[in-house]
Design a protein that fits this description.
By secondary structure, chain A is of the alpha/beta class. Chain A is built from 17 helices and 7 strands. Helix content of chain B is 70%, strand content 0%. Chain B is globular and about 70 Å long. Chain B starts with 5 loop residues before the first helix and ends in a 12-residue tail after the last helix. The chains are: A alpha/beta, B mainly alpha. Chains A and B meet through helix 1, helix 8 and helix 9 of A and helix 1, helix 8, helix 9, helix 12 and helix 17 of B.
Chain lengths: 392, 471
C-alpha cells in the first residue's frame, strides 16, 4: 500500500489484494465543515457566474438559442412529422442570416423550415432530403460559391446526427433551449473560457500557417430564425475584425488548391447536387437555386475564384433549370436597394427583412407562383430567368 | 446519458430526491434499479435487453454453480457465463473486426471473399458490465463469494448507474453487501460527494475536453506530418486528456455513488508518478488491471510456474487487455508494449534484486516511466499504424523539417496543464486526496470548489462522450 505513514485516510485498493474477494470499499470523508463550505461555495459561484454574464452583456451579447445540431435536428424532424410539403431553406450562412422567416410567413401564409448552416455546403443535406420520401414540398437552395463549389462543410454531420440523436441528447437540447439559453448570454461557444483564452494576442509561431477564427456573427431563435448580430454593424472595431477575417481568405496561401483542383472539386459538387435535384424532382419537389448577395472584396474574391460563367452557369446547366442570381434582379441588388452588408457577406436584420420580401416577390412572380414566367425545370434552359426579366 | 450533461443533472437531482424519501429500503432499491435502466436506455433503449441478458444469465449461472455437486457441472455453469458474456462482447465489439481480418487473411491465400459490411452498433458500456457480471459468476465459481441473496440486489449491482457504462469495474463482494442494509448519505457524504463530482467533471470537461483534446486532435486526426515539438505536444496532450477524462469519470462516479450513500473503489492513484510499470498498473485503471490479474493472469498460472510461463501469462494478459479497449490492432500493440515493459522490468528486478534508487534516480526513473508510457499512448490514440509510426518518427526527430501544426497558445496550454498534472501526481503519489483536503483551510477548499464549478460552467462542455464509452 503506497501511502505516507500517518495518513488516516490511507486505504488499500484492489491492486494490493491479489486473488481474493475484494471487500466493500472504504470511502472516508475528509474532516472539514462541509456545511459551511457549501454555504460559502454556492454564493461565490453565483457571484462568479453573474460577473461573467455581466461582462458579456456589457460586450453586447444577448441570450439567444444555441445554434446546435440538436436544434437543426428539431427543424429537420418537422418534415417527417407532417410538414413534408413545407418550403425548406437550405444554404450556408447567407440564406441562414439574411432570410427572415416571419417575413416569408407573412407573405406566404406558411413558415418555412430553415435548414441552412453557416460554413457548410448544403449539398449533403440536399442528398438527405432527396433520400427522404416524406419531403415533397419546395426547396430553396442558397449558393455561396466558396462553400457550395468547394464542398466545405463545418456541419456536414447534421443529418447524420439527426438520425443518431439519443433520447438523452434530445432531452438535453430541450432543457438547454427552454431553461438555459433564454437566460444566459455567455452560453455561446464564442465566449467559452477556452475560446476566449485562445483568442488572446499570443505570439505567432514562426512557420505556422496563420488564420483567424471566424467570430460570432449571428443570433438564433427557437425555430432557427437567425439574423446578423447587431454588433457587427454597430461596433466599428468588431466590424473591422470580421472584415479582416474574411480578407485573410482572399489572400492566396501555400495550401490553396490549384485551379485544376478547384475545377475538379467544383464539378464533383455540381454532380452531387444535380443527382440530388433529379431525385427530388422525380417526386415533384420544386427546387430553386439562389445566389445570395455579397459585395466589395468578398464579391471580387468569389468572382475571381468561381467566375459566374464557369460555376453558377455550369450548375444551372447540370440541373437543367433556371436560378436566381442576385445581380440579375434590381430588387435584390445591394447597390440599388441600399442593403447594408457590414462585412460584405451578410445583411443587417432590417435589410434582411426587406431582402426576404423582395426575394419572395421574385420567386412567386417568376418561379413558384401560379403565374410564374420562368421556364419550367425540364426545359434545361439555364438562362430563362434573365430573359424573362428582359422580356417585361 | 453522460455525466456532463443537463439531462444528467436533472436525472441525478430526481434520483437524489427519490432516494431521500421516507420509503422502505426495497422500494428505494427498486427506484435505483429503474433509474439505472432509464440512465442506460437514455442512450439507446433497445440495448437494455443486452443488460438483462447478461444479468439473467449470470444470476442463474451462479445459482446453478452453488447447487451443482459435480465439478463438471460447476465448470459448465461457469463456462455458460463466460461464453454468454464474451459471446455478446465478441459479436458487438469484435464482430466486424473479426470479419475484416478474416477477409484479409483469406485474401492473402488468394481467396476473394467480400462479405457485407455490418453496421454493428457498439452498446455503450458493454465491456464494463460484462466484466462486472462475469466477476460475479467467477467469484462464486472460485468460492470467493456466495451468490447475492436476491435478484434485486444482484440486478442493482450490475446496473447501478454510477459505474454502469465506464466503471470502476466493481466486484459483487464490493457492492452487493452494501445493498443488504438500508443506507442514505449523511450530509457530510452528500456534500463531499458533490465536491468529488465537481473535481471529476473539472478534470473531464475543463482539462480533457476544453484544453487538451483539441491539441491531440490537431496532431493525430490531421493528415499533416508532425515535427518533434508537435508530435510530443500532441502525445503529451493525449496523455493528459485520457487521464483527466477517465479519472474524471471515475471520480464523478465515486462522488455520485457517495451522494447516495454507497462506496465505490479507487480507480486511479496518480499514475503519472509511477516508477516502473508494475507501479503504473497498480495506479492506472486499478479495477481493470486487478480484474485481469485475478481472472486471467492468475488462472493462466501467474508467477507460480516458472519464468517462461510467467512471461507468457503476462504477455497474454496485456495483449488481451489491449484488445479489450477496442477492435483495432493498435490497441493490441499498446497492450503488447506494456507487456514487454512489464517483462523487461521483471528481468531487471531479477538481475538487480537489491537495487534501491536514490532520490534523483527515483525521479529520473519516474520520468522515464512516463516517457515510455507516452510511447504506448501513440498506439492507443492513432487510428492506424501508419499514423502511429508518423507520430513516433516525429517524436524522435525523424520527420525532418516540416511545417508547424500547433500554435503558441496550444503549446503553452499543454506545457502548463501537463506540467501541473505531473507535479500534482508526484506530490500526491504517496498521499490520499482526502488527507490533502483535510489539511487545507476550509476557506481555500470553498474557493477552489467554486472556481472549479465556475470553470465547468464557462467552458460550456458540449457533452462530449467519455473516451472510455467507446470501450
Amino acid at each position: 500500500m503506497l501511502r505516507a505513514s500517518g495518513d488516516r485516510y490511507a486505504r488499500q485498493t484492489a491492486a494490493d489484494r491479489p486473488g481474493v474477494a475484494q471487500p466493500v470499499p472504504v470511502r472516508p470523508v475528509p474532516a472539514q465543515p462541509w456545511g459551511r463550505i457549501l454555504a460559502g461555495m454556492v454564493p461565490l459561484l453565483v457571484l462568479l457566474v453573474a460577473g461573467w454574464e455581466w461582462h458579456w452583456r456589457a460586450f453586447g451579447v444577448h441570450p439567444s438559442v444555441g445554434n446546435t445540431e440538436g436544434l437543426w435536428a428539431i427543424e429537420r424532424r418537422r418534415i417527417d412529422a407532417g410538414e413534408g410539403n413545407a418550403t425548406v431553406l437550405l444554404g450556408s450562412s447567407r440564406l441562414y442570416f439574411d432570410m427572415q422567416l416571419p417575413v416569408w410567413e407573412r407573405l406566404d401564409g406558411k413558415r418555412p423550415i430553415q435548414l441552412s448552416f453557416e460554413g457548410t455546403s448544403p449539398v449533403t443535406a440536399m442528398q438527405d432530403l432527396a433520400d427522404d420520401p416524406k419531403f415533397t414540398g419546395r426547396l430553396l437552395v442558397g449558393v455561396a460559391p466558396d462553400l457550395f463549389f468547394s464542398g466545405f462543410a463545418l456541419h456536414d454531420g447534421a443529418a447524420h446526427y439527426t438520425r443518431k440523436e439519443s433520447p438523452s441528447q434530445r432531452v438535453g437540447q430541450w432543457l438547454a433551449m427552454n431553461f438555459i439559453e433564454p437566460r444566459l448570454a455567455f452560453d455561446d461557444p464564442d465566449f467559452a473560457l477556452q475560446t476566449v483564452l485562445a483568442r488572446q494576442a499570443w505570439p505567432r509561431r514562426p512557420g505556422r500557417t496563420w488564420y483567424t477564427e471566424v467570430r460570432k456573427l449571428a443570433e438564433t431563435g427557437a425555430d432557427r430564425n437567425t439574423h446578423l448580430w447587431s454588433k457587427v454593424a454597430d461596433d466599428l472595431q468588431y466590424r473591422a475584425l470580421t472584415r479582416s477575417i474574411w480578407a485573410e481568405e482572399f489572400v492566396p496561401g501555400p495550401n490553396d488548391p490549384s485551379p485544376a483542383e478547384v475545377l475538379k472539386t467544383q464539378n464533383e459538387q455540381i454532380a452531387r447536387a444535380a443527382a440530388a435535384v433529379k431525385k427530388l424532382r422525380a417526386r415533384g419537389v420544386q427546387v430553386l437555386f439562389v445566389r445570395m448577395p455579397s459585395i466589395g472584396p468578398f464579391l471580387a474574391h468569389e468572382n475571381q475564384r468561381y467566375p459566374r460563367a464557369r460555376s453558377w452557369n455550369a450548375l444551372l446547366a447540370a440541373i437543367g433549370a433556371p436560378g436566381i442570381y442576385f445581380e440579375d434582379y434590381p430588387e435584390l441588388r445591394p447597390d440599388l436597394q441600399g442593403y447594408y452588408l457590414p462585412e460584405w457577406s451578410h445583411m443587417t436584420l432590417a435589410d434582411g427583412e426587406r431582402f426576404t420580401a423582395a426575394l419572395y416577390g421574385v420567386i412567386e412572380r417568376d418561379f413558384w407562383g401560379p403565374h410564374a414566367t420562368a421556364a419550367p425545370a425540364s426545359s434545361g434552359d439555364a438562362a430563362a430567368a434573365p430573359r424573362a426579366m428582359a422580356a417585361r | 446519458m453522460v455525466f456532463n450533461s443537463l439531462t444528467f443533472i436533472v436525472f441525478f437531482a430526481c434520483v437524489l430526491a427519490m432516494h431521500s424519501l421516507p420509503l422502505g429500503w426495497t422500494t428505494r432499491k427498486i427506484n435505483l434499479l429503474l433509474a439505472s435502466y432509464l440512465f442506460y436506455s437514455a442512450w439507446n433503449p433497445p440495448f437494455v435487453i443486452l443488460l438483462w441478458i447478461s444479468t439473467v444469465v449470470d444470476w442463474y449461472a451462479a445459482q446453478g454453480l452453488v447447487k451443482a455437486r459435480r465439478p463438471a457441472a460447476r465448470h459448465a455453469w461457469m463456462l455458460l457465463s463466460v461464453v454468454a458474456n464474451l459471446g455478446m462482447l465478441g459479436y458487438f465489439k469484435y464482430g466486424q473486426f473479426l470479419l475484416d481480418n478474416f477477409t484479409l487473411l483469406v485474401g492473402t491465400l488468394g481467396i476473394a471473399y467480400h462479405p457485407a459490411h455490418y453496421d454493428i452498433v457498439l452498446p455503450v458500456g458493454i465491456s464494463f458490465y460484462t466484466f462486472a457480471t462475469m466477476s460475479y459468476t467467477l467469484d462464486v465459481y472460485l468460492r470467493r463469494a456466495l451468490p447475492a441473496r436476491n435478484l434485486l440486489d444482484y440486478a442493482l449491482f450490475v446496473t447501478f448507474f454510477p459505474h454502469l457504462v465506464a466503471g470502476p469495474i466493481m466486484r459483487p463482494t464490493e457492492l452487493v453487501p452494501q445493498f443488504e442494509t438500508p443506507r442514505r448519505a449523511t450530509s457530510q457524504q452528500l456534500i463531499f460527494g458533490l465536491a468529488l463530482m465537481t473535481i471529476g467533471l473539472f478534470n473531464k470537461v475543463v482539462l480533457a475536453d476544453s484544453f487538451l483534446s483539441g491539441v491531440a486532435e490537431s496532431v493525430y486526426d490531421s493528415s499533416k506530418v508532425p515535427g518533434t515539438l508537435d508530435a510530443w505536444a500532441g502525445t503529451l496532450a493525449f496523455s493528459g486528456q485520457i487521464f483527466c477524462d477517465f479519472a474524471g469519470y471515475s471520480t464523478t462516479a465515486i462522488g455520485a455513488a457517495l451522494c447516495l450513500g454507497f462506496a465505490m473503489p479507487d480507480n486511479f492513484r496518480f499514475p503519472y508518478a509511477a516508477v516502473g510499470f508494475s507501479d503504473f498498473w497498480r495506479r492506472w485503471h486499478i479495477t481493470l488491471s486487478s480484474w485481469l490479474r485475478d481472472y486471467l493472469y492468475i488462472p493462466l498460472g501467474g508467477n507460480r510456474h516458472g519464468a517462461r510461463r510467467t512471461y507468457a501469462a503476462l504477455m497474454t494478459t496485456m495483449l488481451l487487455g489491449g484488445l479489450w479497449h477496442g477492435a483495432n490492432w493498435t490497441f493490441v500493440a499498446w497492450g503488447g508494449l506494456h507487456g514487454l515493459y512489464l517483462s523487461a522490468e521483471r528481468v531487471l528486478r531479477a538481475r538487480f534484486p537489491g537495487y534501491r534508487p536514490g532520490p534523483l534516480m527515483f525521479v529520473a526513473l519516474g520520468l522515464l516511466t512516463y516517457t515510455l508510457v507516452n510511447v504506448t499512448w501513440v498506439f492507443f490514440r492513432a487510428k492506424t499504424f501508419a499514423k502511429a509510426w508518423q507520430v513516433l518518427r516525429g517524436m524522435f526527430g525523424a520527420n525532418g523539417t516540416v511545417r508547424p501544426i500547433l500554435n503558441t497558445y496550444q503549446l503553452l496550454s499543454v506545457a502548463l496543464i501537463i506540467g501541473a498534472l505531473l507535479l500534482t501526481h508526484w506530490l500526491m503519489r504517496a498521499r490520499t486526496l482526502e488527507s490533502v483536503i483535510a489539511r487545507t483551510p476550509a476557506a481555500l477548499v470553498c474557493v477552489a470548489w467554486a472556481l472549479m464549478a465556475f470553470a465547468i460552467i464557462i467552458v460550456q462542455g458540449e457533452g462530449h462522450a467519455f473516451i472510455y464509452f467507446q470501450f
